[in-house]
Every structure is written in structure tokens, then in C-alpha cells.
């Protein structure tokens, strides 16, 4: 039994029972964990209604949220999102340190607090961006297929080789010299929106406003993790790894920008990033887009027929291959067990978020390319 206090105040008698207040506080700690369960149920139900998500979230609420974030966080020339992550990690470590001696007696309360914190994270993650995982697939929106035959892939890759070689020759007279982009990283960021302005004319749903592209403060860890960039879903900042070989930087930047406008699928982001690159009037951006696509095409052929992939690689100019070797050298430089661990977790993260192919989703954009160009010129 709790102690019941009775006290008068302005001719009225009030009763306070500390025990009942204790029970209220005890129940309060279950609210956020229960809300997490409710959120998971609601989101899984909504995943069966992509048209609803497309209309009311991806084309309804999200554009307002994302533009507001890009306008605000775009005012800063450094990554606010990376700083926020740093602060959160420090506070989490501090909490674990302070509670290290309480786990034996209060492990249930500590677990509930962790689940409660994750509940808030989960809510903000989906409200601010992640509901886009459940929108209408891009190929359905554009009216194209995703599947292709090996013969279609080979025929398309030959066209891609010819186009990439032609762009290389427009930039560099010597076929054996790799392309070196003459721009600074900031100049690449400022030019990246030009391609989006061009594709918006044909595809209004690729419209992009208010640049908020940042060089990640954790670029070196990202290099060891095997990532070229990422979108911060809480600040809508496009984070790019500044260690990347510069010839591929424009396409990577345009890829991350596609996430900013609500395309969560990695295959779709690759496709949109490619489109924004090759429609840019700048030849270096075009080269970056075409080399991105060619690399994935050759990689996909290699999975089917290694000999065919090697014979087709001989059709590629030595200067283009020199750029590919630049990427290989970069990957080898930062190769470590850390990449294996993080890619395992990211692969499963993608699968949990309705991308059943996991990391293979990146190469799936080749299917979008093959089918998009069936009746079009490169």
C-alpha cells in the first residue's frame, strides 16, 4: 500500500497517492515500445498499397518535408547530418557507460529505454524519408520492363561501348589517356542540378530544387565500408565520399540527389543518377554517367559469360579502361574486413526494406537501361 496524503487547498480536499503515480510512471515506459510495434504493423500494411503511398506520401507530404530540409540544411556548407550522428553516438555511449552497473538488476528497464529510443528513431526515419521504399516502382511509372535476355544485354552493351568511346574522344584526343575532370568538388556539386533541370522537361517527377549536397565528414570510414555516399534521411543531405576517383564523382553525386527527391530503390537511384548525368550539357558529366552504366553492363555480362565479357572489354578504349583501373585501385586501397561486415548489414537492411535483391539491386538498373533504350538512341 502506498502512503495516501490528504491536504486542504482553498476549501477543497485533495488526495495524492504516490503508489498510483508510480504505477502511472511504470506504464509510461511501455508506451514507446508498444508504439514501435504499432508502427511496424502500419508500415507493413501500407507496403501493400504503393499507389496510396505514392499519392499521399511520396507526392504529397514528402516533397514539402524534403524541400524544407534542403533549404534549411543547405545553408550550411558542411554536413549537419554527420555531426548529428556523432552527437547521438557519443550520447549513446555515455548512457551505456552510466548504466553499466545497473544491467543486472534493471535490465528490463534498460531494454525498454533502448526500444523506446529506437521507436522514436523508427518514426522519424519513416516520416522524413523511408516510406518511399513502398512507393510505386519506377519502371511501372515509366511504363517499361525490367527483365532482359543475354542477347539484349550484349547488344545494348555494344551500343554503350560505342557511346562511351565517342564521349572520351570528344574530351581527349589520345585514346590511351584517362579522363581527368578539371573541376573542384564544389564545382561538381553546383553543376549537378543542371542535368536534373534537363530531365525534368521530359519527366516532371524528377524535378529537383534547392541543392543540399555535402562532402561527408566520415569519407575515409565510408571508403573502408565500401560506400560512395549516402543520404541522411533525417536532414535530407546528400553525402558524397570525397575520396572517390573524380571521373565517377558526378554520377555518384546525381545518384545521391535522386534519393533526396524520394527514390529509395538503389537500382532506381542508379538509373536516375545516370539520366541526370548524361543529360547534363557538360561532357565530363556525360562521361561519368556512361562509364557508370558501361561498368555495370560489363559486370552483368561477366556473371553470365566471362569470355564474352573479356572480348567485349577489348572494344573499350584504353583511356576508358584506365579510368576503370583507377576505380579498381581505389577499391583495393581501402579493401578491408570492415567492408564485408558493413555490406552484410546493408544487404540485409535493403532486403528488410522491400529490396529483395539486396546489394544486387545496384546492378538491377541495367534492366531499366536495356528496356528504356529499346526504341531510343543513346
From TrEMBL:
Return the InterPro entries for the record: DUF3810
Per UniProt, the keywords (alphabetical) are: Membrane, Transmembrane, Transmembrane helix
List where the protein spans the membrane: 30-50, 70-93, 114-131
* Pfam families in the cross-refs: DUF3810
UniProt protein name: DUF3810 domain-containing protein
Species source reads: Flavobacterium suzhouense
